[in-house]
């Protein structure tokens, strides 16, 4: 039974290997290297020091856990034959999982393990970045990025950013905490001739060419935001501020490697109908004055926002924070009378200024005025928006009475088409009637889509009441006259008036 001596190969420059480590490797009966993919190994070759590299375990393993377990088992088996010197990159006590495993499992097999001091890349980083770790620092392996606390208040060093795939997973985890614009320091081949330390935004991390097993990331301490004290004296920490992060984290897990198959399968296009459904369910809750329903449906809409943001973030397009930043900037930009010293005299001037500022934005610039009305809108809402936009150019009747006259004119044309028996003409004239009615609603600041949605819900509720009355009577529908059914209908209306103004509470 031998002893395992664990030494470090230093950060990369062979001159930074300790003298005691070099002598142990020089005299070793059995020298095992966790990996030969390290710059200092060239010095062993030049000194004709024989060694066995264990890189084959990386090629055979299906995960890092299996790789490290295979290496640990092999080193322990060799130690059962005699003394072993096990050399690892950097320092044996910095980000070296196999060292911890050897100490634990060696004790179980009564094999002594001696860890010798060594120099890691951290000492070089501290020097290059002029950073004193005495005030605290958090050091993690890139595979442990999900364990970074959200309220971290120390600098963070992430080691062994092996490749772009690892960098992509790492950036998604870190951007949820620091934001995608957060500036870190990319540390590449520290202590080697091609050493590079440069600033990088987190969203750019997986687009960088300088990524391999000798790449690390340094993130300074996040700035502490000024406490905002509310009127009741509570700070954000005490008063539980609005925080989107829990939902963002849930979505990251749902679409992660072990997430939900349905969520992982979704795209922007497959989610279209769900977004529309959630908006209409929200309108329904508003129409019913269902306070709990409004709260629930707003959450469902927020879920839609977050899953769309996550999909875009995975594709490197934008993040949830981008959405928040963009809409915040847009609202500030479109309300200079609120966020600057420029006053506005009335509501009309506010709307004019809003439109002028909106038109100056790139996505609002079109070849034709009506191109700005989305073609996928519900037809009544589209009719409202089309006439609203054209009216701003003066294409508008002078009075509401003229619009009413136009409604009568279009209605008569529809009746004439009915008399003709031409269904295609009837459909055309019916469309004209609805289009002008949408314009009449607009003149009185009524959204026709919302008005019709409300009418649909009202009909649904009243007819359900009539249905309940028929069922309670024990008679068949055919046995009732229209006057009797209308009596149930009128009773439903009276019940609605009785309940008017009382918030509806959703049954659970």
UniProtKB/TrEMBL annotation:
Residues 3-205 form the Tetrapyrrole methylase domain. GO terms for biological process: dATP catabolic process; dGTP catabolic process; dTTP catabolic process; dUTP catabolic process; response to stress; TTP catabolic process; UTP catabolic process. GO terms for molecular function: methyltransferase activity; nucleoside triphosphate diphosphatase activity. Its EC number is 3.6.1.9. The keyword Hydrolase applies. Keywords: Hydrolase. Residues 266-339, 399-462 form the NTP pyrophosphohydrolase MazG-like domain. NCBIfam families: mazG, PRK09562.1. This is Nucleoside triphosphate pyrophosphohydrolase. It comes from Megasphaera hexanoica. The lineage of its organism: Bacteria, Bacillati, Bacillota, Negativicutes, Veillonellales.
